[in-house]
């Protein structure tokens, strides 16, 4: 073309059309060979029209001088007679920010270098002179993006077969130049294509050109994502479509131009990508297309043979590669798969979409890190768009994907769900339809995920609640709460209702108006067998409680239906009171999660009816003081109390009891509620009277302390003065002296509490919360001086006045072996350790209570957030313990092999137990404190000894080494009466039971560092005072997961461990306490109990509780020490009483099978080996007996001076190892535990 002007116009139009192919929405303007003034006006007009949007500035510098080293480009003067330099600084000023620059000229690197230098100069000037009022801040220029064709010392390639503006071609038309360059580089293809043109449209993925562009996008995204840092990738490839397209094409320019000795430059700088392995996949895709090009061209000619284009299998191969990664490399999320960006592009294809979604769901199932990685590559717009798809086969996998995304990042995407109406997708699935909504497989699980997504959409989002408030969703969720087969669906349908109601009274009213039975149906879940469902129900009822919000009767959401229904605020109040009564039954639930949520419910209930609770608290305080003063007019006081007998008083008493909950977190929550009420009470006109009543309780507590625990008085003569001077609030809330060694001293704790809390009376009132009179308390104290719970440190809710002093003023130095006790008994081998000394195991998520923090009601639940974590955990793959090759799996295999080896090794020793010698002493363990119960683990080399207070010591009996000692946290005056091992086939747990009716289960009990309190709850309530107490007696049935407990009560209570519920109360049918429990460990139906009056009763759990007593034996004339049914062997049933009489029973017979007198001077302990036919009895010596009644051996004291067998000593505890022929024995008034082994004695075997 001879006309330069027309050539220039054609070049400009071609460049504009190429950019328009990148983005049709962007407006483009040309400035062809402008002079200085035109360039300035052009740039400034662009900024005015763009405002704060990004400007694309493409500089084609062909035919003009190169940029200068000082950063100047060249334009014409006004007369077009010469070139005039324009500084990049001026260009920055004219265009402002943000901008993206493309420089296609020689030495383009000079422009980039000086551009960045001028930005730094602007920042310095801004620091000195302040920001420029006529321009953007200097930092805005830093965000400008620059693409340059070459470095400062390079010239552009001048290959005759390449276009002069090669860089521009790469940036604007990548597919065309990439194919041409591939042909040039291939010796086989070079010269075969005279007119190289790929048929099709670039926007149609079904055509060859569109498919190549699709593959190119996937490959360049993959290269960028695998080489760039996450924030940079998001900025360049996901925030702006034009910027993303230009940078994809820039990667191609880097690859092509480096072959011709040019190194394109960018700002921000990119790492080297020209030799990325994915370029080979691109070359293969191009070659696949070019091979078919001659046939396509021939078919397009007249008379040509039709030819169907064979699409590339690139995406299928990438999906296969991704599937292989998921199978073999998914454990290494630090090196994510390169195919993840390709997966996004595959979602655009209907052919591969389902497979891609399934693979994506498997990837997201790996955890939050995988979800974040998927979101970082831009998956969200794709899955959001797919919510508009009506395809039923996509619903299950889409629901799963959205559940994973919402579980990780729901707050940022709620508005997007509103814009695209995506929330309706999940609501429509939740609402029952005539036909199946999702696939027939795992329908409840998918419905639960829909409820989860909807609940998160409503959480704290008013607009989301309004959009979901329709009655159809509420009724659907209510229906799903009755799904018996899916606890997960019941849980999340209930939580979805709770989020609909939370802080949105219109939704509550509408629910009541549409279905008056809705709340009754919902409250049935309080008795659900699954603890998470029970907790979810409490959460929903908590959100239903009013919190001061008012409902506009003219609201469009509360229409005339509410008026015609006759529903009033009084009806709502009655519902709330009925809920408060219903929730009371869960205060003794075995699940700590349920009990904590009960306290959260009552915290909101207390806040709403706080005036009534002030009356209840004062009346209860006045009544308790009157009981302590032994006033005879207690009935008059109760009759004159406006709160006596009201639901508020009952709830208040329950909260006082919960302040002494054995689980620290529950106790902390309850203490906050009680302290909140007392703070308000101190602000009323009754504050002076309250002060007097509190002072009386403190003085009474101190006097009881000095009378019943004189050893504490001896160790701290001035403690009473110190406490009384500070007042009851500091005493009750101080939490001092709990063996906790992190945190402030006891004095600082007192001062902190005194300054920050007006009163902390929750613990001081614990014993009065039960409503027991002084007479009953004194009777109990005479047996065991039970004044309160030992302190738990500033982190615990179980610190009482007495326990606090017991731990702090007696000994607060720790649990070291040489510094455990403060009071020596008359027997030098026994150390008396004060209550509360030693490490107190805490729950794994327990956070230390901050006494300086202001109490705000209602308390935060946290259950909803905790439940959401379920959807962050892997669901598709096996757990680690079930995954072959994993560490946990190999550990489990090893444990199983070890257990089988121990069983096989010990089976042959059963006969030896009858004729062998039992006097071989293999260990002498110094427990320091007096052991009262010993328990061997089945397979671990562990022996647990519990002392006569709250100490638990774990030994490795094979090495005679102490592994751990910790405090059980039972109250002062109580004792540990039971110890059991649970789940011994795998990782064992330790259960302890104490005489106040509480069991605690510990995980990693043998580790000083890792021990945890797994759970704890009160298994027995209403303990009866007696002349002689048995404490808590327990029997664990591993096969059924059942815990049977008895003791100083009139029932045998059965707890279901998986469901964390009391399943039945079996009437004991005896006025004496239960002293021993045993059961059939195989089927678990037969339960045998021994009693304090010598009776033995057999119960059959297959019958109803009232008909379960099937046999009663009354041959024993004194306290039954133990009754034991063997787990293996002949499964003998043996009982023994304190008078030394031993019986062997057959439950089918009324008379014993065998009886013998083991000792004539009384018997304190008896045990039966689980598998061998031997019985051990303990008096002054230990007698080993066969189940035939023959005395096998008598264990004599060892030569080391161990006192067993002396006339003054009596056996305190003894225990057989469940499998090995090992026995542990301990004496009264002796802290040592002797471990004895049975050895082979052939002479006795053949001499029988």
Automatic annotation (TrEMBL):
Q: Specify the species.
A: Sugiyamaella lignohabitans
The name this protein goes by in its record: Kog1p
For bias kind Polar residues, which ranges apply? 711-723
Q: Report which superkingdom the organism of origin falls in.
A: Eukaryota
Q: Which family does it belong to?
A: Belongs to the WD repeat RAPTOR family.
Q: Which residues form the Raptor N-terminal CASPase-like domain?
A: 1-116
GO BP annotations listed: cellular response to amino acid stimulus; cellular response to starvation; positive regulation of cell growth; positive regulation of conjugation with cellular fusion; regulation of autophagy; TOR signaling
**Annotated region Disordered: where?**
711-750, 772-797
């Amino acid at each position: 073309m001879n006309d330069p002007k027309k050539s220039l116009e054609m070049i400009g139009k071609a460049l504009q059309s190429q950019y328009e192919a990148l983005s049709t929405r962007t407006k483009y303007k040309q400035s062809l060979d402008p002079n200085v003034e035109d360039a300035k006006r052009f740039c400034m007009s662009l900024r005015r029209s763009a405002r704060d949007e990004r400007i694309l500035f493409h500089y084609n510098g062909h035919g003009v001088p190169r940029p200068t080293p000082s950063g100047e480009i060249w334009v014409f003067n006004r007369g077009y007679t010469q070139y005039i330099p324009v500084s990049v600084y001026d260009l920055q000023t004219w265009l402002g920010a943000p901008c993206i620059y493309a420089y296609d000229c020689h030495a383009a690197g000079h422009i980039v270098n000086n551009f960045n230098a001028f930005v730094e100069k602007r920042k310095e000037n801004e620091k000195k002179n302040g920001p420029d009022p006529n321009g953007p801040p200097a930092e805005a220029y830093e965000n400008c993006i620059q693409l340059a064709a070459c470095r400062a010392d390079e010239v552009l390639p001048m290959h005759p077969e390449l276009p002069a503006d090669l860089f521009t071609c790469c940036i604007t038309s990548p597919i065309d130049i990439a194919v041409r360059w591939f042909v040039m580089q291939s010796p086989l293809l070079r010269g075969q294509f005279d007119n190289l043109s790929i048929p099709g449209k670039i926007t149609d993925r079904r055509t060859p050109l569109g498919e190549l562009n699709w593959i190119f996008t996937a490959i360049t995204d993959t290269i960028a994502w695998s080489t760039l840092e996450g924030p940079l990738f998001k900025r360049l490839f996901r925030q702006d479509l034009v910027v993303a397209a230009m940078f994809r094409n820039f990667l191609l320019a880097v690859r092509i131009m480096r072959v011709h000795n040019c190194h394109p430059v960018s700002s921000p700088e990119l790492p080297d990508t020209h030799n990325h392995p994915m370029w080979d996949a691109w070359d293969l895709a191009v070659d696949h297309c070019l091979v078919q090009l001659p046939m396509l061209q021939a078919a397009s000619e007249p008379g040509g043979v039709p030819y169907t284009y064979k699409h590339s299998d690139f995406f299928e191969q990438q999906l296969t590669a991704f599937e292989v990664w998921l199978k073999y490399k998914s454990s290494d999320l630090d090196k994510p798969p390169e195919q993840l960006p390709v997966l996004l592009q595959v979602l655009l294809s209907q052919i591969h979409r389902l497979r891609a979604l399934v693979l994506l769901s498997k990837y997201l199932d790996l955890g939050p890190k995988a979800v974040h990685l998927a979101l970082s590559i831009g998956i969200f717009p794709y899955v959001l768009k797919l919510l508009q798809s009506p395809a039923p086969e996509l619903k299950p996998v889409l629901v799963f994907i959205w559940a994973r995304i919402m579980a990780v990042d729901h707050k940022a995407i709620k508005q997007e769900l509103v814009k695209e109406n995506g929330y309706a997708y999940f609501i429509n699935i939740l609402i029952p339809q005539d036909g199946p909504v999702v696939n027939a497989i795992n329908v409840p699980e998918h419905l639960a995920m829909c409820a989860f997504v909807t609940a998160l959409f409503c959480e704290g989002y008013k607009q989301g609640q309004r959009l979901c408030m329709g009655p159809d969703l509420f009724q659907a969720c209510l229906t799903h709460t009755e799904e018996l087969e899916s606890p997960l669906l019941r849980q999340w349908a209930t939580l979805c209702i709770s989020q609909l109601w939370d802080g949105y009274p219109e939704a509550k009213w509408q629910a009541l108006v549409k279905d008056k039975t809705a709340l009754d149906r919902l409250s049935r879940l309080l008795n659900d067998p699954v603890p998470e469902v029970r907790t979810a129900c409490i959460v929903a009822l908590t959100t239903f409680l009013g919190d001061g919000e008012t409902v506009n009767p003219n609201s469009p959401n509360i229409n005339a239906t509410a008026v015609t229904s006759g529903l009033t605020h009084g009806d709502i109040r009655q519902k709330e009171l009925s809920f408060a009564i219903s929730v009371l039954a869960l205060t003794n639930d075995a699940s700590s999660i349920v009990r904590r949520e009960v306290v959260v419910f009552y915290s909101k209930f207390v806040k709403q009816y706080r005036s009534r609770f002030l009356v209840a608290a004062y009346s209860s305080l006045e009544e308790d003081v009157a009981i302590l003063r032994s006033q005879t007019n207690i009935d008059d006081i109760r009759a004159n109390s406006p709160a006596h007998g009201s639901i508020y008083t009952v709830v208040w008493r329950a909260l006082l009891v919960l302040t002494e909950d054995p689980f620290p977190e529950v106790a902390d929550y309850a203490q906050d509620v009680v302290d909140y009420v007392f703070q308000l009470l101190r602000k009323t006109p009754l504050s002076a009277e309250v002060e007097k009543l509190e002072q009386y309780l403190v003085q009474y507590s101190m006097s009881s302390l000095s009378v019943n625990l004189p050893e504490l008085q001896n160790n701290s003569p001035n403690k009473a003065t110190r406490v009384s001077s500070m007042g009851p609030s500091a005493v009750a809330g101080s939490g001092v002296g709990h063996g906790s060694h992190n945190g402030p001293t006891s004095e600082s704790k007192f001062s902190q509490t005194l300054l920050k809390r007006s009163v902390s009376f929750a613990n001081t009132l614990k014993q009065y919360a039960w409503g027991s009179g002084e007479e009953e308390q004194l009777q109990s104290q005479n047996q065991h001086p039970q004044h309160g719970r030992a302190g738990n440190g500033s982190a615990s809710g179980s610190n009482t006045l007495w326990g606090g002093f017991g731990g702090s003023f007696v000994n607060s130095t720790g649990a070291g072996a040489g510094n455990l006790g403060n009071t020596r008994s008359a027997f030098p081998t026994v150390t008396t350790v004060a209550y509360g000394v030693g490490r107190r195991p805490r729950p794994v998520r327990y956070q230390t209570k901050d006494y300086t923090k202001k109490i705000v009601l209602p308390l935060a639940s946290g259950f909803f957030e905790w439940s959401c974590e379920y959807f962050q955990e892997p669901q598709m793959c096996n757990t680690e313990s079930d995954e072959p090759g994993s560490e946990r799996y190999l550990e489990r295999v090893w444990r199983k092999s070890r257990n089988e080896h121990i069983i096989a090794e010990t089976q042959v020793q059963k006969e030896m137990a009858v004729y062998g010698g039992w006097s071989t002493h293999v260990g002498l363990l110094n427990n320091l404190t007096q052991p009262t119960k010993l328990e061997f683990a089945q397979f671990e080399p562990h022996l647990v000894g519990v002392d006569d207070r709250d100490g638990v010591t774990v030994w490795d009996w094979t090495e005679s080494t102490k592994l751990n000692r910790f405090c059980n946290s039972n109250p002062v005056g109580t004792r540990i009466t039971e110890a059991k091992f649970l789940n011994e086939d795998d990782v064992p747990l330790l259960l302890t039971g104490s005489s106040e009716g509480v069991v605690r289960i510990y995980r990693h009990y043998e580790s000083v560092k890792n021990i945890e309190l797994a759970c704890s709850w009160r298994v027995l309530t209403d303990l009866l005072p007696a002349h002689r107490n048995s404490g808590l007696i327990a029997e664990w049935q591993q096969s059924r997961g059942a815990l049977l407990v008895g003791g100083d009560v009139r029932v045998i209570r059965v707890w279901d461990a998986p469901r964390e519920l009391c399943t039945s109360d079996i009437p004991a049918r005896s006025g004496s306490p239960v002293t021993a429990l045993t059961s059939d460990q195989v089927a678990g139906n037969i339960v045998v109990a021994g009693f304090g009056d010598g009776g033995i009763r057999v119960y059959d759990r297959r019958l109803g509780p009232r008909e379960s007593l099937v046999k009663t034996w009354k041959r024993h004339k004194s306290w039954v020490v133990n009754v034991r049914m063997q787990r293996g062997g002949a499964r003998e049933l043996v009982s023994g009483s304190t008078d030394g009489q031993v019986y062997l029973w057959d439950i089918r017979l009324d008379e014993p099978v065998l009886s013998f007198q083991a000792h004539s001077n009384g018997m304190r302990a008896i045990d039966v080996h689980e598998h061998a036919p031997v019985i051990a009895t303990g008096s002054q010596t230990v007698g080993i007996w066969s189940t035939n009644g023959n005395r096998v051996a008598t264990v004599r004291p060892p030569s080391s001076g161990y006192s067993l067998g002396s006339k003054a000593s009596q056996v305190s505890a003894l225990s057989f190892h469940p499998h090995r022929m090992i026995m542990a024995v301990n004496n009264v008034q002796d802290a040592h535990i002797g471990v004895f082994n049975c050895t082979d004695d052939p002479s006795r075997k053949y001499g029988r």
